[in-house]
Design a protein that fits this description.
single chain
């Protein structure tokens, strides 16, 4: 009986701790969660300059998680040996990240890397 009581107390403690840690996490659909995800998934170092750090994180989320800008604006999209469509572990081509140059018939994707003022260079 004593062992059962100890086990029950242990389960309650674990459930309480898990509940507390979940309560401290931002809502996954919140802007704060998207900002933090943007920082985590950025394939290149982010520069802030005069921009608000939160705007840079949110921009990274929009570019890398929502829009997939890399697919058209990085040529080639993946570094050698990093193409997941060939069964390789994904590795974004950071050397040419968002620098444009992918041809779609007569149209070529623009360079959208930030210039010195933080605006798309292309």
């Amino acid at each position: 009986m004593r062992n059962l009581l100890i086990a029950a107390i242990g389960v309650l403690l674990v459930v309480t701790l898990v509940g507390l840690s979940e309560a401290q996490r931002p809502d996954p659909s919140s802007e704060e969660a998207r900002i933090q995800q943007g920082f985590r998934i950025a394939p290149v170092p982010l520069r802030f300059g005069r921009n608000a750090q939160d705007l840079v994180g949110l921009g990274s989320y929009i570019v890398n998680a929502q829009s997939g800008c890399n697919d058209c604006h990085t040529n080639p999209s993946y570094a050698p040996g990093g193409d997941p469509f060939l069964g390789e572990p994904e590795h974004i081509n950071t050397e040419h990240y968002l620098a444009g140059g992918r041809a779609f018939g007569p149209i070529v994707s623009a360079n959208i890397t930030p210039d010195s003022s933080g605006r798309p260079a292309g």
